[in-house]
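Chapter summary example.
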Amino acid sequence: MSATEIALLPIEALAPRIEKLELSPLELTDRMLDRVQKYDRTIKSYVVVSQTARAAAERAERDIKEGRYRGALHGIPVAIKDNYLTADMPTTVGSKAPCRFRWSMPPRFAGSGRRAPFSSARRTCTSSRGGT
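The structure predicted for these 132 residues follows.
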């Protein structure tokens, strides 16, 4: 199967092949990274490509071989839009303006005394004219 054919398959077609190791997570990741390298020069859809994608695919493949398949997304490479906060990738929201984040914890759940199980961030970007 060609890289293009694999790239066009939906997850529900890829996942069973990965679970049975008919398609290796590493092979899938390599093919997708090759396509990013080939086409992104023209379409410019990625801000950053993860340098740990291959290592994650190797771990997924090892887990699956050892009987620890974790579900339909296990071993599937994903692209994450750059408006989501991630620990190891920049969050630019498509802006070239320098940005910083101020983390805040949400207020306690009303009446429960417990904190909400998520945090939020406020993004501040400064333009070349000094605005935010």
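To summarize the output: DSSP finds four helices and two strands in the chain.
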